[in-house]
Specification:
Strand content: 35-45%
Order of helices and strands: EEHHEEEEE
Number of domains: 1
Mean pLDDT: 95
Largest sheet: 5 strands, mixed
Structural class: alpha+beta
Radius of gyration: 11 Å
Shape: globular
Helix content: 10-25%
CATH architecture: Roll
Low-confidence stretches: none
CATH topology: Structural Genomics Hypothetical 15.5 Kd Protein In mrcA-pckA Intergenic Region, Chain A
Distance between the termini: 18 Å
Strand order of the largest sheet: 1-7-6-3-4
Length: 71
């Protein structure tokens, strides 16, 4: 599990995936969501701009698992 540090109270899902180099463009997140590969805290996520906070865990099945941590 990769830990991703954010310097704000929250980050949007699409921004996080770009920040963590999981995707190279925001449009790619829609493909992952449509393929039902994105899970936030164990639940299927279908919102491209879902707000994430420190402590949240994002799993992109077949690619990576990310844990958000604050500063």
């Amino acid at each position: 599990m990769k830990k991703i540090t954010i310097h704000t109270d929250m980050i949007q899902l699409d921004q996080l995936l770009k920040w963590a180099d999981v995707i190279s463009s925001g449009g790619q997140v829609r493909i992952l969501i449509d393929e039902r590969r994105v899970y936030v805290n164990g639940e299927l996520c279908q919102v491209k701009r879902k707000q994430l906070h420190p402590g949240d865990i994002v799993e992109v099945r077949g690619i990576d698992t990310l844990q958000i941590v604050g500063e």
